[in-house]
Structure formats: structure tokens, C-alpha cells
Amino acid sequence: MKSSRNPLDIIVSAQKSGQARGITSICSAQPFVLEAALLQGQAYHKPVLIEATCNQVNQFGGYTGMRPADFVGFVFTIADKVGFPHQDLILGGDHLGPSVWQDEPSETAMQRSAALIHDYVQAGFTKIHLDCSMRLADDPLGALDIEVVAQRTAQLALVTENSVTQSGEEEKLRYIIGTEVPVPGGATEHEEGVSVTKVEDVKQTIDVMHEGFLRAGLESAWERVVGVVVQPGVEFGDDFILDYQPEAARDLSKFIESQHLIYEAHSTDYQTRDALRNLVRDHFAILKVGPGLTFAFREAVFALAMIEDFLFSEAERSNIVRVLDEVMVQHTGYWKKYYQGDEGQQVFKRKFSFSDRIRYYWTDQNVQGALERLLKNLRRQAIPLSLLSQYLPRQYERVRAGEIENQPHAFLLDRVMNVLEDYAFACGNY
């Protein structure tokens, strides 16, 4: 590795020396989630890895309405708010490639992918997950040939290297490769189990990708490939969680010990603390989490809404739970194809699904107004401890212990940080 001070290089080196070290990858644009992650990083004096996906942030705005430079400014604003140093932020681009443009011919899709990556790198993203595993409109039917995946990946790696703003800045770039990528945001159907990546498949991926980089004259870039995405056997969806089973991934874990890479594990949301720790021990050292954090945020908002119902008249209340559902019913694009069942089941899933499609609606103007009103109401007076005990028992204990203030903002952050504590434990932060 070129820079032993790079946090990802440090994790790779620790893993290769037998230490169970890892890093949490925060895949979210939710302001409370990002604030909680930065506060935790500040508390442990650790770098924080925050990632944006190609669907979430791209040159056309993505579903957040943000371009790469906008997202960087958004994160920096939150970092400044909490006093987190910019130099300790690692910004990552997830699933960078033609995923957004799968319905377009390969030439057009790859041109758009190149522009996407150029914008990400110029904005300051340094951890780049190159994902060209998807079939494009003019590709033959069936699974995409691994050689095509490798050629396209190397093509985008060359764009990445050429997109840095100053000579030598490419040494800051770190790459993640891998074709066996779980569906972003969780599975769309109920699953009883998922197949762990076969050793021969990940070996082929590494070998073919390596050859593709070398053919493109990217020897130095290959030295900065730090991880490969595989399926360790974890997944979640609308109504299920598949827990990590170390025995099922034993051969996969053993194999990577002979490589210069570590694994990146997607969809680790809702795994237990011990399961997360076992993943890091078994070299799945980059733990990606997103919906599990916004789910925790949603839980805290709903708890505060129930407290509000007891303290304020109907005319004064935010009615945020009702507002959210009304907005989701009016704009079905982010949840309709994910939530099956009759009307009653869909009503339940819109609020409580592990897929947490509700996370796409927090930026809606009506929802934002309701959330602001909820927080404003609950700031007007201290929440009675008896109601905290009923609806936010962990936060009740922390208020009693003098660890957090009796304030709604603090409760939202603490609920998210409670989840992140499991990741901090797993990654060896304490």
C-alpha cells in the first residue's frame, strides 16, 4: 500500500496481522443519522466512513436531489455543526457504474457512468466501489460475462484515476471491486436463505479483475484495491432477517487470508452485536449499514409522536405518523413494488417494514414540517420521566444517569447511536 496512514490501509494491515479490526460504512443521507455517526466517531476518535449510492446521488441529482459536490457540502455542514474534522471523514461512492442506466445501451450507460465517477472524484470522494455487474440493454440475455464486467470495471477505474484534480492525488483513492453484490436496500422478496459466495467465484473475480486492470495500464491502481464485495450469508427484507452463520462462510473467510484484500459486507442491517463481531473476525471488515439506522430513527420519531399525543391537544399535535402515511399513499414510487399483500398489510408495512422504505419520505416538505412541529412541541416542556420510561426506556435510563438531556433531538440521536454502538464494538473501537 502506498500510504500506511490511510484508515482503510490500516484496517487491511490489521486484518492481515490477525487483528479483528473493521470500519462501519454509513450509507444514508438522513441528517440525524449522519449527525449520530459523526458524534460517535468524535467520541471514539475514529474516522467516519459515509457513502452515497449512484441512485441516491448522481450528476442528475438522484433521489436526494443532490449531485456529488452537493452531498459533500451537506456532510461537511453537519460535520461543522458537531465539530468533526473534515480530514477524518472518508467519503465513499457505492455501486458506481451503470446501475442507474441499465435500460440504456452499453455505450450510453458507460458514458453516463464515466461522468458520474468523474463528478464523485472531483467532489472529494476517495473510496470508490466500482460495480459493473449488471446487464445493459444491448447485452446478451442471462448473467453478464465476467470478462465484460472486468473490462468495464477497468474502463471506469481509468476514468477514476484521470479525474483527480491534482497530480499525486490519485494516491488517496481506494477501490472496492466485486460482482456478487446484494440488492441495495435489502431484498425485495421474502427469502429463507441466501447462498454464500463460493471461493472459486471470488477467486475468479479477483484474478479477472486484476488482469483487466493490468491490460488497462492500471498497475498502481490495483495496489489500491482494498476490498471485494461478496455475499457472506446475511440479508434482510420486508419481514425477515438472515443472521450470519460463521460455519457457512468458513471457506470464504479462510481464502481471503492469502490475498492482499479484505471483504466488504453489504446488508448487515439488523445483525446482532455478536454476528457483526464475527463478521469482522472473519475478514468482512467493511460493514455497510443504512436502512437499519433510519429504521431506528423512525422508531424514535414514532415514540415521540406517541408521547406528544398525551401532552398536546389534537389541534396542536404534529400528527407526523398520519402525515407520513398520507404522503406515501400519494407518492407510491419508493414502496409500492416492495410491499406485497392486501391493503391492511401494506398499511402495516409502510410504517414497520425492515426494508424501511419510509426513509425516502423524510425530505418531503409536509413531512419535514410535521417533524419540526413535533420537535418544537416537545421542546416546550420537559417530557415527563414516566412517559420516557414507557416509550423510550433506554433514553429514560440515560436521562436519569445524566448522560443525555431530556430533549427530543437528543433522543433521536441516541436511538441511532445505540445501533451504531454494536458496530463500534464489532469493529474493535473499544
Detailed description of the structure:
47% of the residues lie in helices and 11% in strands. The chain has 430 residues and is α/β, with parallel strands linked by helices. It has 2 domains: 7-289, Aldolase class I (TIM Barrel), CATH 3.20.20; 295-421, putative tagatose 6-phosphate kinase domain like (GI Alpha 1, domain 2-like). An 8-stranded parallel β-barrel has the order 1-2-3-4-5-6-9-10, surrounded by 9 helices. A two-stranded antiparallel sheet has the order 7-8. Strand 2, helix 3 (68-82) and strand 3 form a beta-alpha-beta unit.
CATH topology of the largest domain: TIM Barrel
Poorly predicted parts: none
Which percent bin holds the helix content?
A: 40-55%
Physical arrangement of strands within the biggest beta sheet: 1-2-3-4-5-6-9-10
Class computed from helices, strands and strand pairing: alpha/beta
Instruction: Report how far the terminal alpha carbons are from each other.
Output: 26 Å
CATH level-four homologous superfamily name of the largest domain: Aldolase class I
In total, the number of domains comes to 2
| Biggest sheet features | 8 strands, parallel, barrel
The CATH class of the largest domain: Alpha Beta
Calculate Rg over CA atoms: 22 Å
CATH architecture descriptor of the largest domain = Alpha-Beta Barrel
What sequence of helices (H) and strands (E) makes up the elements? HEHEHEHEHEHHEEEHEHEHHHHHHH
The fraction of residues assigned to DSSP E strands is 5-15%
Number of strands: 10
So how many helices? 16
Structural shape: globular
pLDDT averaged residue by residue: 95
